[in-house]
Design brief:
124 residues; alpha+beta; 5-stranded mixed β-sheet; 3-stranded antiparallel β-sheet
Amino acid sequence: MSATAESFSYLCIGCPLGCRLEVDVVDGDVVEVRGNSCTKGTSFGRQEYNDPRRLVTTTVALDSERLSRLPVKTTIEVPRGQVVAVCEALRCVRVRAPVQAGDVIVGDVLGTGADVVATRSVRA
């Protein structure tokens, strides 16, 4: 029985260089990552093939005289397939000022293990 070899292309987002990666896979296992200029590319290529994840940055509604939206982000990366669902879940969230940067706005969003936190402080 012969091994099944495939090659996948990814744009690395592990650092600002944005390297074009080639990930070679044999029978479902990553055997080589090429095209990276730093070590982050190797781990990113493996992660992207096996379990792609992303940080989510967006805004939620804010009750404040100064601002109408509060910038937020997830504390850890969530599965790439759940990014849109996380954003949709946050569309219903409304926060009242005051808010401190780092305050948890939504804990364990959609069971991902990621908290959504404020990235800006807003006075009342």
